[in-house]
C-alpha cells in the first residue's frame, strides 16, 4: 500500500484504548510501588524514528511503565515476525496487525471490549476484529485512497476556478485528461506495485458488489467455491473500464512496470514536479509529497465508475491495522500497562498529534489535533460527509502478491481482461 500494505500498516500512527476497570488500575498502581512495569511494543516501517520518539515521550511522563520498541526485521512481514517471537517465547506486550491476522490469534489476545475509548471509535472500525461480541483489536487510525490530484496542474490547465469534484464519470475524467495531455503534461501515474494493484485497485471489485457486508462476503465465497462468473460481473467490468482509461493516459504507458522495484518515490516526484495531474494512491503518500513539495495542494476524487456502482462518488477508507494486547504469556500487570500505554496514545495531546504528523486520519472522534496537510484534509471531508466505502480486508495473506501479479500482467499487456478474470478466479478457487 509506496511499500507493501503491511509495511504501511506497521508504520501507521498508534491509537487506542482507555484503561478499563478499577482492578486493572490497581494492578498498575501495585507495580508502581516497586520497579516500573516493562512492556514491549511491536512496530516497524517508515515511521520508525517517529515511533521511537513517541515511545520516549510516553516514558518521560510515566512513573509506572517503561515501554520499549521492537522493530520489524527487514524482509519479514509483521505476522511472520510475530510468529517467530511467539515460537521464541517472547512476544511483545502490544503489537500491531491487520484485521485478518488478528483473527488468527484471538486465543492469545486480551479482550479489549470494555475499553472506554471504543465509544469514540468511528462507526464500523472494530467490526472486522470482533468475534462473538469480543473486541480483540483497537483501530490505530484511518487511511484513505482514491485518485489523488495535483491542484496546481489542474488549475493551470483548466482555470483557477476549476472544481475537481465535478469529475464524477469516466467521460468527465477523460475530458480533463485530454486537456491535460494537450498542455504537454501526462495525465496519470500508475504505481505498478502488487499491493497497489491487488490489495487496493482490485479490492474495489469486492467492496463494490454491495453496500451490505454479508453480500460482499457471499460474493467472495462464490469466488472460493468457483461459482462466480467474474468475467461477466458488472462491477469487475466497471472498474476494469476505468483501469483501461488510466492505462491509456499513464505516464509509464510505454513501459508500465518500469518502477515496480522503486517504491512510491518516483510517482511522488512526478506529482511534486507537476509532471502528472492524477495518481491512484492514498494519504500515506503525504510524507513523500511533503518532502518534495511543501507548498503543493493535493486532494482526492473518487474513482470514476458507473452511477449504479455502490461505490460511485466515494473514496475508500480503511483501518490499516489494529493494536492488540498480548494475553497468553503476559502478566496481568503487563496487560494493564499495555492498556494504559494505548490509553495515553489515544487521549494525550502528544498521541493525537502523532497520528496527524504521520499523515494519517484519526480513527476516534475525540482527536482534536488540527489537520493541515491537504491530502488528509480532503480525505476527512469525504469521511465527514459520509462519502466513503470500506475496504474489503478479508482476503488471504498472499492476495497482494498473487492478484497483484495478475494485475501487473494486465497492465503490461501480457493478458487480456478474460485472462485476468480467469487467473483471479483460479487464485480464489485454490484457497482452502
From TrEMBL:
InterPro entries according to UniProt: Bact_solute-bd_prot1, SBP
Family per record: Belongs to the bacterial solute-binding protein 1 family.
Membrane-spanning ranges: none
Position of the signal peptide: 1-20
PANTHER family to which the protein is assigned, alphabetical: ABC TRANSPORTER PERIPLASMIC-BINDING PROTEIN YCJN-RELATED, ARABINOSE-BINDING PROTEIN-RELATED
Pfam family, one: SBP_bac_8
Statement: the UniProt record of this protein carries the keyword Nucleotide-binding: no
Keyword rRNA-binding listed: no
Protein name: Carbohydrate ABC transporter substrate-binding protein
Keyword field: Signal, Transport
Amino acid at each position: 500500500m509506496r511499500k507493501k500494505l503491511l509495511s504501511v500498516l506497521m508504520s501507521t500512527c498508534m491509537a487506542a484504548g482507555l484503561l478499563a476497570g478499577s482492578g486493572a488500575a490497581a494492578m498498575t498502581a501495585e507495580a508502581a510501588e516497586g520497579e516500573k512495569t516493562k512492556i514491549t511494543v511491536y512496530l516497524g516501517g517508515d515511521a520508525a524514528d517517529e515511533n521511537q520518539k513517541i515511545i520516549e515521550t510516553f516514558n518521560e511522563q510515566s512513573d509506572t511503565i517503561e515501554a520499549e520498541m521492537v522493530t520489524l526485521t527487514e524482509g519479514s512481514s509483521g505476522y511472520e515476525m510475530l510468529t517467530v517471537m511467539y515460537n521464541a517465547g517472547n512476544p511483545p506486550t502490544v503489537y500491531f496487525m491487520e484485521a485478518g491476522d488478528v483473527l488468527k490469534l484471538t486465543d492469545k489476545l486480551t479482550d479489549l471490549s470494555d475499553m472506554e475509548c471504543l465509544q469514540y471509535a468511528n462507526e464500523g472500525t472494530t467490526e472486522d476484529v470482533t468475534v462473538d461480541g469480543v473486541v480483540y483489536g483497537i483501530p490505530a487510525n484511518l487511511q484513505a485512497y482514491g485518485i489523488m490530484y495535483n491542484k496546481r496542474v489542474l488549475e493551470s490547465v483548466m482555470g483557477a476556478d476549476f472544481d475537481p469534484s465535478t469529475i464524477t464519470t469516466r467521460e468527465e475524467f477523460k475530458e480533463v485528461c485530454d486537456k491535460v495531455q494537450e498542455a504537454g503534461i501526462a495525465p496519470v501515474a500508475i504505481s505498478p506495485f502488487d499491493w497497489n494493484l491487488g490489495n487496493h485497485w482490485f479490492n474495489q471489485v469486492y467492496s463494490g458488489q454491495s453496500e451490505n457486508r454479508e453480500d460482499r462476503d457471499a460474493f467472495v465465497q462464490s469466488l472460493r467455491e468457483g461459482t462466480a462468473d467474474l468475467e461477466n460481473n458488472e462491477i469487475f467490468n466497471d472498474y476494469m473500464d476505468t483501469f483501461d482509461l488510466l492505462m491509456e493516459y499513464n505516464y509509464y504507458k510505454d513501459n508500465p512496470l518500469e518502477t515496480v522495484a522503486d517504491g512510491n518515490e518516483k510517482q511522488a516526484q512526478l506529482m511534486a514536479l507537476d509532471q502528472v495531474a492524477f495518481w491512484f494512491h492514498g494519504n500515506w503518500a503525504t510524507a513523500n509529497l511533503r518532502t518534495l513539495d511543501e507548498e503543493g495542494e493535493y486532494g482526492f476524487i473518487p474513482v470514476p465508475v458507473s452511477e449504479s456502482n455502490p461505490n460511485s462518488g466515494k473514496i475508500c477508507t480503511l483501518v490499516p491495522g489494529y493494536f492488540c494486547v498480548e494475553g497468553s504469556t503476559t502478566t496481568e500487570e503487563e496487560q494493564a500497562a499495555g492498556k494504559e500505554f494505548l490509553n495515553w496514545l489515544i487521549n494525550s495531546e502528544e498521541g493525537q498529534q502523532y497520528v496527524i504528523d504521520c499523515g494519517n486520519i484519526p480513527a476516534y472522534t475525540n482527536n482534536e489535533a488540527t489537520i493541515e496537510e491537504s491530502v488528509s484534509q480532503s480525505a476527512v471531508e469525504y469521511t465527514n460527509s459520509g462519502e466513503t466505502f470500506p475496504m474489503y480486508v478479508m482476503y488471504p495473506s498472499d492476495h497482494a502478491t498473487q492478484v497483484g501479479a495478475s494485475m501487473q500482467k494486465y497492465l503490461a499487456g501480457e493478458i487480456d481482461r478474460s485472462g485476468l478474470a480467469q487467473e483471479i478466479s483460479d487464485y480464489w478457487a485454490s484457497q482452502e
